[in-house]
């Protein structure tokens, strides 16, 4: 083989080896960095842009895609200890011409965290209203989506600021009493009795606890490598003290049943989506909402747990789109009548 050609192959092989070795090193030594890069890449691939909005000295971090148009904008509120990027799995299946906004909830990720802030559900709803006014999202009524803690906040928001929204999607929301205790609620009771409430199952601090949390939240059993589990824990550990404070706040008397206390005030057409095998918040909550909200559409997903957004993203996206299309069709019929 010609020496120049041989040298070319050596150089090419070395060039390829560098990123491969960097990837392997990141995976083994800095898995948390790899997770951040993963979300950054996914946002770029889906066309989601990150922006900041300020209300006085308070900063909100959010991502968005598209512009407001004839169809309602969609605002998405994530759950406890998550962040705006949890919605990317659903964004993937939504039309690119829809105006989507995913915000970091108060104290999470890029949004301001302050020891003086009110992290009750009503306090968070007020903060989200400030965000909505900051970016002028309520120039026209929008569709509001919330899951888990974010579902609790979304329901209270719909009750407190009815003029802002045209419709609502609640995905296995918190804030409801249940006749049947979920596995998570039973675990909490056991921890309270043993005075080990600091060991909250949704706040893992080891890879083993992270694996247990994933099993608790998902019906689908994902095979997650040990290094990725470690990376997920490493990302969360600096925030665990805040998560404990937040959990005790939203699980306390003031917020525990906030959605239940406000659901009769919800007037917007509402869609409820719940995983039948939810082990965090019992699926019976869906019937509670359906019986209290006049125009409520309920969907129970078989073979699905609490992490509906992760386990059934395509189905969830389609249900939201079908719901919005139904409302649009009904609105047109009313105008023609």
UniProtKB/TrEMBL annotation:
InterPro entries: AB_hydrolase_1, AB_hydrolase_fold, AB_hydrolase_sf. It catalyses: Hydrolyzes glycerol monoesters of long-chain fatty acids; 1-dodecanoylglycerol + H2O = dodecanoate + glycerol + H(+). It is found in: Late endosome membrane; Lysosome membrane; Mitochondrion membrane. Keywords: Endosome, Hydrolase, Lipid metabolism, Lysosome, Membrane, Mitochondrion, Signal-anchor, Transmembrane, Transmembrane helix. It is a single-pass type II membrane protein. GO terms for molecular function: monoacylglycerol lipase activity. Residues 72-313 form the AB hydrolase-1 domain. It is an enzyme of class 3 (hydrolase). Its main location: membrane. Its EC number is 3.1.1.23. The chain crosses the membrane at residues 6-39. One of its GO terms (cellular component) is late endosome membrane. SUPFAM superfamilies: alpha/beta-Hydrolases. GO terms for biological process: acylglycerol catabolic process. It holds the Pfam family Abhydrolase_1. Belongs to the AB hydrolase superfamily. Lipase that preferentially hydrolysis medium-chain saturated monoacylglycerols including 2-arachidonoylglycerol. Through 2-arachidonoylglycerol degradation may regulate endocannabinoid signaling pathways. Also has a lysophosphatidyl lipase activity with a preference for lysophosphatidylglycerol among other lysophospholipids. Also able to degrade bis(monoacylglycero)phosphate (BMP) and constitutes the major enzyme for BMP catabolism. This is acylglycerol lipase. It comes from Aptenodytes forsteri (Emperor penguin).
